[in-house]
User: What shape does this take?
Amino acid sequence: MKLIYVFHSGFVIEAADFAILIDYYKDTGFHPHHGYVHDELLKRESPLYILSSHAHPDHFNKEILAWKKKKENITYIFSRDILHHRKAGEEEAVYLLKGESYEDEKLSIKAFGSTDAGISFLIRAEGKEIFHAGDLNNWHWKAESTPEEIAVMERDYLNEVALLQQTTTHLDLAMFPVDPRLGDDYALGAEQFIDRIHVDLFAPMHFAESYQALPSFCHYAREKETPCVCWKEKGQFVEF
Assistant: This one.
């Protein structure tokens, strides 16, 4: 399988006879309607699954709903908060809450929780287990939060990771936030994640244009014997 970095938390996973687009926000090109997704992915005949973990505008772009006019074999699988926020209609997607699942002949998807909005995704396809965290992370802001608030956030985050551990302790691929806006603890949640779940390939996300934040975490991951993709540009890809 191939993983293509689109932007921010957006990725494409290419399998033998289908593809998955997760948390599309912006394409890889300078023009909003050009790049890998518009110029290549949407022009293919094979089925496309489009997943959105929640309604935040850096994870969900309503443009994706218009693509079904150009490409018939799209299956939309969204967090239910997207429906609650009226970003899409009842008939436009399969909607999942934490604990719910989708399955067909090509893949299965189970929704796990988030410490912000919406859900995270555990995807099983072609014998691989793939996790996209959405906005699941150990989010805390030392300059703005009390020690008590930080402790609650960490507890809630580790509880969500523990639920995932009950289902799997090994992932072929994990896409997970490494967000420099958090300051010194920008990679804390990612570090705690790979300390608890064995990951064959870790793909940082949610860093926007801050590529300079990645090498330090990737060094930590490799010290923990976790291969990490140190993204350098949109459209970069890796086989896994």
Notes: The chain has a mean pLDDT of 96. The two ends are 6 Å apart (CA to CA). DSSP finds five helices and 15 strands in the chain. Residues 2-239 form a domain with the Metallo-beta-lactamase; Chain A fold (CATH 3.60.15.10).
